[in-house]
Design brief:
Layout: E1 2-6, E2 13-18, E3 26-30, H1 40-51, E4 55-60, H2 62-65, H3 74-91, E5 98-103, H4 105-113, E6 121-125, H5 140-144, E7 150-155, E8 169-174, H6 184-198
Parallel strand pairs: 3-4, 3-5, 5-6, 6-7, 7-8
Antiparallel strand pairs: 1-2, 2-4
Helix pairs in contact: 1-6, 3-4
Protein name: KANL3/Tex30 alpha/beta hydrolase-like domain-containing protein
Pfam families: Abhydrolase_11
Domain KANL3/Tex30 alpha/beta hydrolase-like: 24-165
Amino acid sequence: MTTLTIDTPHGPARAELHCAEEGRAALLLGHGAGGGVGAPDLVAASRAAAAAGVHVALVEQPYRVAGRRAPAPAKQLDTAWLAVVEALTAEWFHDLPLVFGGRSSGARVACRTSAEGQAVAVLCLAFPVHPPGRPEKTRMPELDAVTVPTLVVQGESDPFGMPGPAQHREILALPGDHSLKRDLKTVSRTVEEWLGRILRPHG
């Protein structure tokens, strides 16, 4: 594992790199609003990527690196994320297909930046469709705007809602809530299988 500090327009971010032996792609994962990169579902997805021969970068946003708990505004999160993507691509992942992903808030960032960052696919762990109890405040447009293959892993009793499948989008509904802790084995197995499938043309 290698830990890098990467300058962004909103302060330093951190990336924890887990390199596969023969990396055929890179998966960049962002954390949830109040959590860090050690969340159980992010760890499960990282293990799955390694098994699929994919490098992983767990990206810590500048507000977390600075020790703040409250997340930065969406625009700042997106700008910082794209700065990290650019730095990692230049130094580590040159010419490799990039998969963007994350849990909750990190999944939203991955969706919003997928086109500009030229991601070949997006992995959403516990995508927050709406704030709990407020279905009218939907964030589905962020998910619907993604034009590349997308896997959403969602807890069946997630208070943040359940997205539906779409043309490019697969949904895996698991027992449990927003944490996805109840069935990490299935999270891992599904992510590994999905990465293997969507990256086949690039392999």
